[in-house]
Write a structure and sequence with these properties.
Structural class: alpha/beta
Number of helices: 8
Number of domains: 1
Radius of gyration: 16 Å
CATH class: Alpha Beta
CATH architecture: 3-Layer(aba) Sandwich
Shape: globular
CATH topology: Rossmann fold
Helix content: 40-55%
Order of helices and strands: EHEHHEHEHEHEHH
């Protein structure tokens, strides 16, 4: 079975060409055909993200273009932070049609600017979703995420990087204390993605 088309969206602060995005696009390529894109504000060189409707529309256009290129029936929406949240909105807008799963690298449950809880879209989801979260990420308190997950209709899975930040990166002190390396954690995250996709029938 061929792998899915994985549309991978960047976060608010860095483009699809960032080292973090390139690294994870390379890892995800073991599971399917990975396509990345940049939101309009990033292409224009602006620092402030576009408003949500513009972001979701751009995400939708990128999905349609990628699907036309690949002819893929099975699509996974992956994203870092803001990109993962826009993927959730797109899945809800399309009623989940043609979107097999969602992979969220550091879902921003709390707004960094206002602290507002961003759980409404999660409650509206019907698409299976994987949360990949750092235990030290201030934008996604794990206790609050667990409360939201308990109220969600969509099947959800959580993988926690102990000591990880918003980018799932673990500090040197924590790594030394555990005897692990960042590469070991990255492999564990990829294994969690692989298992999640297999569980929901989205695999090679």
């Amino acid at each position: 079975m061929a792998g899915p088309l994985i549309l991978f969206a960047h976060g608010a602060g860095a483009p699809s060409a960032s080292g973090w995005m390139r690294g994870w696009a390379r890892r995800l390529a073991a599971l399917g055909a990975v396509e990345t894109f940049d939101y309009p504000y990033m292409r224009a060189g602006r620092k402030s993200p576009d408003r949500q409707p513009v972001l979701v529309a751009a995400h939708a256009a990128a999905l349609d273009e990628a699907r036309a290129r690949h002819g893929a029936a099975t699509v996974v929406l992956a994203g870092k932070s803001m990109g993962s949240r826009m993927g959730c909105h797109l899945a809800v807008d399309r009623g989940g049609a043609g979107i097999a799963a969602l992979i969220c690298f550091g879902y921003p449950l709390r707004s960094g600017a206002t602290g507002a809880l961003r759980d409404e879209v999660l409650r509206a989801l019907r698409t299976p979703i994987l949360f990949l979260e750092g235990s030290k990420d201030p934008l996604c308190p794990l206790g609050e995420l667990e409360k939201v997950r308990a109220q969600m209709t969509a099947p959800s899975t959580l993988f926690v990087v102990e000591g990880g930040n918003h980018s799932l990166e673990v500090g040197a002190r924590e790594l030394r204390a555990t005897g692990k390396t960042q590469a070991v954690w990255d492999e564990a995250v990829l294994a969690a993605v692989t298992g999640f996709l297999a569980e929901h029938g989205v695999t090679r």
